[in-house]
Amino acid sequence: MGERKKPVVIVTGGAGYIGSHTVRELAERGFAPVVLDDLSEGHRGAVGAGTPLEVVSLDDAAALGRAFATHAPVAAVMHFAASCSVPESVREPSRYYRNNVENSIRLLEACRAAGTRAFIFSSTAATFGNPVEPFITERHPQAPINPYGETKLVIERALPAYEAAYGIRHVALRYFNAAGAHPSGELGEDHHPENHLIPLVLRAAIGAAPAVTVFGTDYPTPDGTCVRDYVHVSDLASAHVLALERLLSGGASASYNLGNGAGYSVRDVIREAERVTGHSIPTKEGPRRAGDPATLVASSAKIARELDWKPRHGALEDIIGTAWKWHRSHPDGFADRKGGER
User: Fold this and answer.
1) What is the rounded CA–CA span in Å between residue 130 and residue 162?
2) pTM
3) 101 and 155 Cβ atoms separated by less than 8 Å
4) Is there a contact between 22 and 11 (Cβ–Cβ < 8 Å)?
5) Ranges of residues in the chain whose predicted pLDDT is under 70
6) pLDDT at position 230, please?
7) What distance in Å separates the CA atoms of residue 178 and residue 181, rounded to the nearest whole number?
8) CA-based angle 160:164:167, to the nearest 5?
9) What is the per-residue pLDDT for 26?
10) Which residues lie closer than 8 Å to 100 by C-beta, 6 or more apart?
11) Do the bridges between strand 169-175 and strand 254-258 make them parallel or antiparallel, or are there none, so unpaired?
12) Could you tell me which residues come within 8 angstroms of residue 9 by beta carbon, excluding any fewer than 6 positions away?
């Protein structure tokens, strides 16, 4: 008898930050990932040798259909491709509704046409808005305060309807602040422009930026700066694979929050980065950014209980340390930028 065929998993945005880490985890866990990415934000260099890369935009239904047909049968889709900056979503909501809503529905239609009945959705803590309890559980009200969170919530609400009508089961993973880099130092965070705190702090540590701007120092938090729950990108990747295994084994649809259950302020992160790197990190104060809640901290008790998910890199020191390893060895990020492709 021939070797059993590995289940094919299409990963949209698989050349991006969280997607590329998940692609590696999938390959290591016996799946056959296929990356769909238009490379507007992703990087060819983030896609491992031997992993197929289809340069496809989700606004092209015909190209989507061809990709599904080329790699048929497709057991599941993991959907990471999205616009994901809160401030930008406030300035340019039209982009977010087109990319995060219209393109996601187009992808669900491609799943429907191809007979793919398992869908892992990359959602966000931004669907919750301002917290009304110290640790945000899955039962927390979802009341987004920015278009980014709203567009993700639109798809979360569409998924049960697609299951009821077309049999597409789903898991929505709402993560808090993804951070860190692959422990090997081969994969890391490389956005242009960069909006995430830890890479901005580390760029200042290596002298690639003059200072880190602290947006808002008058929040109702212990030191006046925003408090966030940082979860390591490799731990997010493992959660996606656990969710996939749940669906492929016949498990029911579900939604899970992903975080470490601990909040760190902007100033906490800067102080820890100074300790880890051994460098002084200059800062300057700026106004609050529109759409930013004061505090977001997750309860991940549900996914720990149901899928036995446990963070392997929970300490802030480890999260910053792996990111520092990546930024020191890749001060210019991936070395594959050419024109609009990275």
Assistant:
1) 28
2) 0.92
3) yes
4) yes
5) 1-4, 335-342
6) 93
7) 10
8) 100
9) 97
10) 82, 83, 148, 151, 152, 154, 155
11) parallel
12) 26, 31, 32, 33, 34, 74, 75, 76, 77, 78, 244
The first and second tokens of residue 250, run together, are: 């016949």
Residue 140: C-alpha distances to residues 240, 254, 308 (Å): 22, 15, 22
DSSP category for residue 127: G
Distance, in Å, from the CA atom of 94 to the CA atom of 107, rounded to the nearest integer, reads 19
Q: What is the pLDDT of residue 3?
A: 60
What tokens were used for 171? 């898991």
| Torsion sign over Cα 205, 206, 210, 213 | negative
Q: Which sequence positions are flagged as catalytic?
A: 148
Neighbours of 31 (CB within 10 A): 22
Tokens standing for residue 306:
């149901």
8-state DSSP, 256 = E
Is 221 within 8 Å of 295 (Cβ atoms)? Answer: yes
Please report the pLDDT score of residue 188 as a whole number. Answer: 84
Preceding amide of 73 cis, omega within 30: yes
Decide: 298 and 125 in contact? Cβ < 8 Å. Answer: yes
**308-313 contacts, C-beta under 8 A, 24 or more apart:** 308/242, 309/235, 309/238, 309/239, 309/242, 309/256, 309/258, 311/231, 311/232, 311/235, 311/260, 312/232, 312/234, 312/235, 312/238, 313/180, 313/183, 313/232, 313/234, 313/235
Within 167-230, where are the H helices? 197-205
Angstrom distance (rounded) from CA 120 to CA 13? 13
CB 120 within 8 A of CB 240: yes
Q: How confident is the model at residue 341, as a pLDDT?
A: 42
- ∠ CA 303-308-309, rounded to 5°: 65
Distance CA 320, CA 181 (A): 8
Domains observed in the chain: 8-179+231-259 (3.40.50.720)
Report the pLDDT value the prediction gives residue 336, as an integer from 0 to 100.
60
